[in-house]
TrEMBL record:
<dbReference type="Pfam" id="PF18985">
    <property type="entry name" value="DUF5718"/>
</dbReference>
<protein>
    <submittedName>
        <fullName>DUF5718 family protein</fullName>
    </submittedName>
</protein>
<dbReference type="InterPro" id="IPR043776">
    <property type="entry name" value="DUF5718"/>
</dbReference>
Length: 270
C-alpha cells in the first residue's frame, strides 16, 4: 500500500498525549511557539540501509517484542502529494485520510523517536483510505471522529478518547504550512532527525501520521500482550454515534466504507 513512499509521523500534535505516554521529557528542550507540534520523525524510508528501510505496515497483525512495553497510538494519517521548487517542498496536497496505528515502545531510552517506532515488520498499520474533497473547514474531515478500542479476552474496552479530527492542535491550512516548513528545515536536534536526507529523491507522495489522541485513564499504563486486538476507527459522526461504532466493532460487523476507515490488528509476539 505504501511500500514505495516515505512514511513519517508528527510528535506532540494532540494535547496531553506525550505526558500520558511518559515521553514529555524527551522533548523538554524543544520549545515551540504557539503550541506547535514538537517535530516530525521518519518510520519508513524505502531503500534506506538502516532499520528505516524495513517496511513496517501490517493491517492484520501487530508483532511486538515479547518483553517490551508497547502501546498503540491511535491516529489519523494523510496521504500527501508533494510539489517542489528550487528551495524544496513548495506545496502539499492532501489526497486521502485513514485511521492509523503509530505503535510505540515505551519505557526505553532512545537517541531518536524513530528508534521506538519501526520495531518489527508488523509494527504499525493503516485503515482504508477515504478521499479528501478539500482539506479545510467545510470539507469532509469536519464530519469525522476517531475512536479506538481494545479487545482482551471477553472484554471490549474504550482505548483512546473519542475525538473529532478538528481537535488536533494543528489541522487544515495551519497544519499544511507547518508540515511544509518542517520538512524543509528540521535539523538533527535532540530526538529529532534532519529530514531533508530522507527526501533527497523528491518523492511525489508521503504518508504522514498526525499524532496520537489521548488514552482513556485506565489505558495509560496498559501494554499489549499476545492475543489482544486493537481497533482504530475513523467514522462519520453525522451518520454514526460512538455507541453504534462500538457495538458494530464489538460484534464483528464493522467494515470499511466511505464513512468508516477501520484498522483491526491482533497482537502477536515476534
Amino acid at each position: 500500500m505504501f511500500k514505495n513512499i516515505p512514511c513519517f509521523g508528527i510528535a506532540g500534535n494532540f494535547a496531553q498525549h506525550l505526558e500520558q505516554a511518559g515521553e514529555a521529557s524527551d522533548f523538554a528542550g524543544l520549545v515551540r511557539e504557539g503550541g506547535a507540534p514538537k517535530g516530525i520523525f521518519p518510520f519508513y524510508v524505502p531503500g534506506n540501509s538502516s532499520f528505516l528501510g524495513r517496511y513496517p505496515l501490517d493491517n492484520e497483525r501487530l508483532k511486538i517484542p515479547k518483553n517490551a512495553k508497547v502501546q498503540a497510538e491511535p491516529e489519523i494519517a494523510l496521504r500527501l502529494g508533494l510539489n517542489y521548487d528550487e528551495k524544496g517542498i513548495c506545496a502539499l496536497k492532501p489526497l486521502s485520510f485513514m485511521s492509523f496505528n503509530d505503535a510505540s515502545v515505551r519505557g526505553v531510552k532512545a537517541a531518536k523517536i524513530s528508534h521506538k517506532k519501526n520495531f518489527s515488520g508488523a509494527s504499525r498499520g493503516a485503515g482504508n483510505e477515504i478521499a479528501i474533497d478539500k482539506f479545510s473547514s467545510g470539507g469532509i474531515c469536519d464530519d469525522f471522529s476517531l475512536a479506538s478500542f481494545l479487545r482482551s479476552g471477553s472484554e471490549f474496552l474504550a482505548y483512546g478518547e473519542c475525538a473529532r479530527l478538528s481537535e488536533y492542535g494543528y489541522f487544515y491550512e495551519k497544519l499544511l504550512e507547518w508540515i511544509k516548513i518542517t520538512l524543509n528545515t528540521q535539523q538533527d536536534e535532540a530526538v529529532l532527525e534532519h529530514l531533508a536526507v530522507f527526501l533527497e529523491h523528491k518523492p511525489k507522495q508521503i504518508l504522514l501520521a498526525l499524532g496520537a489522541t489521548r488514552y482513556e485513564p485506565n489505558m495509560e499504563n496498559r501494554y499489549f500482550k499476545a492475543g489482544d486486538e486493537v481497533y482504530i476507527i475513523a467514522f462519520n459522526h453525522k451518520k454514526f454515534s460512538l455507541e453504534q461504532i462500538k457495538e458494530l466493532a464489538k460484534d464483528g460487523k464493522i467494515s470499511p466504507s466511505d464513512d468508516i476507515s477501520v484498522l483491526i490488528q491482533r497482537i502477536e509476539y515476534e
